[in-house]
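Posting for a labmate who doesn't have an account.
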Amino acid sequence: MIGGAGWRFAGIGLLCAIRLGSARAVVLNDTVSLVSATPAAAQAALTPQTFTVTTAGMYTVTVTDLNLPVALNSLNVAIASSTNLAANLGAVGTSVTNTVPLAADTTYTAQPLATAAAGSTGAFSVVVTAVGGANPIFQNQWPVAGSSSALPPGESTLSTEFTPTSSGTYQVTLSDRAFPAALSSLQVEILQGATPVCATPINLANPTCQVQLTAGTTYDLFVVAQAGGAALAGLYSLNVAAGGAVAYGATTPVGTLPAGLPFNVPRNEMISLQLADLDFPAALPTLQAVVAQGSAVLQQYPAAATESFSASASAPPVLVFVFAQPAGATGEGSYAVYAKDGAGPLLDTAQPVVDSSHYGFSFTTTVTAAALQLSATDFEFPAQFSALSAVAEQQGMMVANTTVNTDFNSSAGVINLVAFAVPAAQTPIGLFRVSLYTQASDSVVYSATQGVGGLFLTIPVAVPAMGDYQLQATDLGFPAPFTNLAVVITNNVGIAGEVFGSGSVTFNAPATAPYVINVVAQVGAGESYGLYGLYLATAPPVPTVSLSASPSSITAGRSVTLTWSSTNATGCTAEGVGAWSGPLATSGMLNVGAVNVATTYTLNCNGPGGVGTMSVQVTILPPSLGGGSGSVGLPTLLTLALSVLWVARGRVTRRNGPGARSRS
């Protein structure tokens, strides 16, 4: 399995938009995406449509199978925002209506899944109307084509057209290039309207035909080819020409043979092209190539080598078709193709070669001449890889790899990175990053993240300002929940946040910098599709809470009133005893009754930004000297003062009484 899988995701929504209003969030991503399990499923997927609700309320959603000309085989429609599946309706052969609440200032996606009978067609409609409203806020119709059977292994078809610029007798020449093996069958048909232009069929047994073609007339060309050999790979050329006038000329791969690696030739000249085995992670036992331009083969490479050949500037781009196989013991290998003329490089590429149980990925960038370091980082998301390695290539040579030597001196120009990853057996998905750093300052020159083992998508995001941001991922469960859905946001340093399944994470962006949202998904067992939503925006503020007790210090048995308020909160919960317990409004006042012991009262307020908390304590004063209520009034103070004076007077009288010594 090589490279990414861009065909597996179809997303629609809002990217990098700013919602109006000072209290609104800055929205960086607001999308709903459909994941297709296979290329065939992706090709059959219907295009979603969006609509925006401006007024919150109840809306009717009506899905109707139009029975044109007959009922569909299957029909399901999801109405979803990036955070919520609002409706899921099925309506084969009939019309179904649901009434659902829709939120204001929210973009919704209508994502249909429908199939028609093989060889037939169908159509359906979706209408959304406010309850009590006269006019729909959204309506759309979709045509549905009948499904076609999959091609047999190793079979390829071509359907195209060509228009001659001059009239005359043209020679049609079909050539099996027997690369890497001869084709089992090859058939060509050229039609003008519905009429074949060749009197006899064009095939391997009859590879040529002379036809009369008219200038300015468009002809249809159909080719069916079946690869032979164990690899089920092949190559053929087809040329339609009259002397020097070429109406059509091309070389086309069949079966598992990859598409040709292209490059343009600026002038008629000699080209030097190197086919190199990078010997990383192991040598390739099979490495062959054919270089073609139009229908002409310019050079063949039975093994790795450097060869020179002439090419024409006026002809189509040069294509390099490479057939490679890894060693059975390792299942991994890599090669490079480097082409140049007298003025400089024309093509510099490196590609992984893996078997069906391994993963290889290629990345290309340009660098200046510098001392660099190659790095491959395992994010251990959701688990550590069993193996992870990378190699850097320039001008047909391996310049660094993560196994032996990561430091190298780069030349100015294109550099290619090839990475290999093996997920852990118990966790078949993972995420890694390949990077180039300067050796002197450890500055990032290039960085790319890649998911492994599942359907993978990367979404670059530019953070506009320093601050807190919140990423929310939602498994919309349409048509069924994902087996695995993992979302991680990364930057050049590492992971900023991660979400498994449905949930949200808040992260701090210390400075404006490029971030990447990475999605790794596996559709539900037996399913062809899955639907998820992503919402990334400035994080809502954390709720603030104010809580006070009056009075806060009392004698035992007195009553206490608690007063509270909050901001950025949607609800509050009291933690304490008695009346202070359970859900509360976001502000208010409550008499909690008599308090006999020191008590702590806590209030938690929830909001989109998290939870705010505050506590207050009511303390109990010690009992007063006279008991009672604990207060000391003026009469009591006077009584105490007179008692003190009386005692003092008695002491003086006794000191001056009989038997006392006079101080005169």
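Reply:
Got it, the structure tokens are right above this. The longest strand covers residues 26-36.
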